[in-house]
Specification:
By secondary structure, this protein is mainly β. It has no helices and eleven strands. The strands form two sheets. Strands 2, 4, 5, 6, 9, 10 and 11 form a seven-stranded mixed sheet that branches. A four-stranded antiparallel sheet has the order 1-3-8-7, with no helix packed on it. A hairpin with a 2-residue loop joins β9 and β10.
């Protein structure tokens, strides 16, 4: 397994979750790291990404609520999700890019429901 994601689960609206994704040490020279999500019946969409220099981009729907960060020494990317809404319910996938190669995690389910 080259990418291992964790941290998903069931949370009430307004709650918080933190996702983590550790990339194998065999993946080096990582440039971009980030998160996509796919809700039932919808296309996969970019949630957040962070470049090697720390520049971040977010989907408009999560700006001000989600924050992504990375630990380059650990090859790990994080997604802190606050003020969660029911529409955030989805399978979240982490990814990393190294050169022309992209690697994907197995997906972790986030369910926001009361």
């Amino acid at each position: 397994v080259q990418l291992q994601a964790s941290g998903g689960g069931l949370v009430q609206p307004g709650g918080s979750l933190r996702l983590s994704c550790a990339a194998s040490a065999s993946i080096f020279a990582i440039t971009m790291m980030g998160w996509y999500r796919q809700a039932p019946g919808k296309q996969r969409e970019l949630v957040a990404r962070i470049a090697s220099g720390g520049t971040t981009n977010y989907a408009d729907s999560v700006k001000g609520r989600f924050a992504t960060s990375r630990d380059n020494a650990k090859n790990t990317v994080y997604l802190q999700m606050n003020s969660l809404k029911s529409e955030d319910t989805a399978v979240y996938y982490c990814y990393v890019r190294s050169g022309t190669n992209s690697y994907w995690g197995q997906g972790t389910l986030v369910t926001v429901s009361s």
